[in-house]
Design goal:
It contains seven helices and 14 strands. By secondary structure, the chain is α+β, with helices and mostly antiparallel strands. It has two domains: 132 residues, Fructose-1,6-Bisphosphatase, subunit A, domain 1 (Fructose-1,6-Bisphosphatase, Chain A, domain 1); 113 residues, D-Maltodextrin-Binding Protein, domain 2, CATH 3.40.190. The chain is globular. The relative contact order is 0.14.
Length: 259
């Protein structure tokens, strides 16, 4: 099915405007599964996506962080995270995004990640490159880990926190420095645009990874799982870097953090 990237951008900007209008207000977070929080705005933003996408593409299935209904993965579907970085949004920290990906045959075809406060719109269509606000982007060229600015993300479970601590203890001495933004979508887009050199994550979900994964790939990044195979929507771990870092990364780091 042909999906118009312009429609995706129009809708993601609409959701971003809604979030920006409600940013900075008193926002109550709700614990929904023992480790994960959301707000009323996550649900409202998800509803905007679902309603507007149905106007243009009524036959495409809808899956989001807030609407985990069963889908037939053999048919096209949207995968959406209405607020990627909900805690940042609720705490008046501007590093949050809203993001969407269109999937066919379990392959991301096009996507968008929008940072409404920073007004950065990252987009990609498979085979056509990656862009930020219409300007083509590409990964950085750092070739050695000791010069790399890295980012390590994680899921919300206690086991993921243990993994994160272990990973940072191994990775920090090998790299230049690290930056943590609290939003997987932003982390991945920042690798895609050369702001960061490496993103490693374990335990997050496909709606966290999917939109940014295509943007990174189209920007020239290596996008794999911990086994070094091409990342798939069913993978709970991801490694994104420029291709110059891949060999050293998998030789020196990945064996340590996957034990």
């Amino acid at each position: 099915m042909n999906v118009d990237q312009r429609i995706i951008e129009k809708i993601v900007r609409k959701v971003g405007t809604y979030l920006a209008d409600n940013y900075g207000k008193a926002i109550k977070q709700h614990l929904i599964d023992g480790t994960h929080y959301d707000t009323i705005h996550d649900k409202i933003a998800s509803d905007i996506y679902q309603k507007d996408l149905a106007k243009y593409y009524p036959d495409i299935q809808f899956y989001s962080e807030e609407f985990k209904d069963h889908i037939d993965a053999t048919k096209p579907y949207w995968i959406i995270d209405p607020i990627e970085g909900t805690t940042n949004f609720a705490r008046n920290i501007p590093f949050f995004a809203t993001q969407i990906a269109y999937v066919e045959s379990n392959i991301v075809i096009c996507s968008a990640v929008y940072l409404p406060i920073l007004q950065e719109l990252y987009t990609a269509t498979r085979g056509k490159g990656a862009y930020c606000n219409g300007v083509k982007i590409s990964v950085g060229s750092v070739a050695n880990l000791n010069q790399a600015v890295v980012n390590v993300g994680k899921g919300t479970g206690v086991d993921n926190l243990t993994w994160w601590g272990n990973t940072m203890s191994h990775l920090a001495p090998l790299t230049r420095t690290n930056r943590l933004y609290g939003s997987t979508g932003i982390d991945i887009c920042y690798v895609a645009s050369g702001k960061l050199d490496l993103h490693i994550n374990h335990g997050s979900h496909n709606y966290d990874y999917a939109p940014g994964s295509l943007i990174a790939e189209e920007a020239g990044a290596s996008v794999t799982n911990f086994s070094g195979k091409n990342w798939q929507l069913t993978d709970s771990d991801i490694v994104i870097s420029n291709t110059k870092l891949v060999k050293e990364l998998f030789t020196r780091c990945i064996p340590l953090i996957t034990k």
